[in-house]
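Trying the structure run again after the queue cleared.
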Amino acid sequence: MSQKNVIAVDLGAESGRVIQVGFDGEQLTLEDIHRFPNIPVLTRGTLHWDVLRLWHEITSGIHMATADISSIGVDTWGVDFALLDRDGKLLGNPVHYRDQRTEGMMEWVFERVPRRTVFERTGIQFIILNTLYQIASLSHAKSHQLEVASTFLTMPDLINYWLTGARVCEFSNATTTQFYNPRTANWDFETLTALGVPTHIFPEIVQPGTQIGNYNGIPVIAPAAHDTGSAVVGVPATTSNFAYLSSGTWSLIGLEIDKPVINDAIYAANLTNEGGAYNTTRFLKNVAGLWLAQQSRAAWREQGSDYNYEQLATEAAHAEPFRSLIDPDDPAFLPPGDMPARIREFCRRTGQPIPESVGQVMRTIYESLALKYHLVLENLITLSGRTVDHLHIIGGGTQNKLLCQMTADATGRVVLAGPIEATAIGNAIVQLISLGELANISQAREVLSRTVNLVRYEPQQSSSWAENFERFKALVGA
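Done. Tokens:
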């Protein structure tokens, strides 16, 4: 058969890419068309996404494609959104989820809708950056934008609207807002009304695989528009007994299950049920991820030392093991800033040796992440009753060999690392299924397992990791 080519637009919190994915009936091939940074902009105390620059880069990348393109799909990070006026014009640059406008908003929301009720209606974990608390901040401030808004769109939906003119929200990304109700399969209008948010602004929710319009005559198909949703589609698993770790700015560790699990135990563990492609649920937890390394690197660069990630991993590999540990999800680490200084302060506050050198800081980050992965994975397995044979690490973090090995050591499980571009691959797979080139996810994963080079990490040094796991649990109060 002739090769079918699709374009996967994949926007992450640090960078974006436009990738051409080809399928000849036997294997998938990837070709980078365009890569670009995603740099937030701080204006008068508010942190924004530079969405018009992103739009320019996306369309430039699409136009760089030289092959015949059968469709286009867009995925992005979750939780952020745009508001349009009645004429479809952007009411303001979308605000970054790390902006401070959500401070105090959890308490404000729970005064109006009890915390347990929010979970019962949505099944989503509580994180201050969730869309629920962002939009609540607008209601609390009596925002003029919210008063005049005609349409709410999440970030991938905004790009799709500009591509096609269609005002719809894709399912997997809608579920990350913490105001989608899986029981009613619609927006959680009860909660939104209680918060004073106008409900007429929320559009139709469409499923992954829906053709939502055309761009210059090319069909635009909604993949799992949340980047982790697409990444999970791109896991090259041949059995159902796997866990995944989508490793990038955020680490999302989880299982693929049939339906949401909403009960007291999941609520107490603060786990989440996000929508996946084709009637699946991403049962997972967000962990801070490589954000800690990214911000540390940025801080050292400002101080005159420009390390690449390979150099940072080498420094960490030569540092003393288990000298200091942190909780990667401590609130102090959420905003941008001098991460090494915050790590030192955390260690000072918890009575541990202060990491001074670059290697000590990075070792602290990587070992703490690996131990947090272990803690989360064991919770997921216990509460789901699932068997997990191995852990698939996908995304940019697969390039960090030290962290992959540490993850195998900490969890005591075989780690299979790859592919790096799992999100773009998963994005393309949904398009190819919609186009009739692939039958389903199972066939796609079988193709991937034959054509993707995976790196296998066997667990080692289990006794020292087990000993420090107990120390880590005490540190984080688990």
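The first strand starts at residue 4 and ends at 11. Worth checking whether this holds up in the mutant runs.
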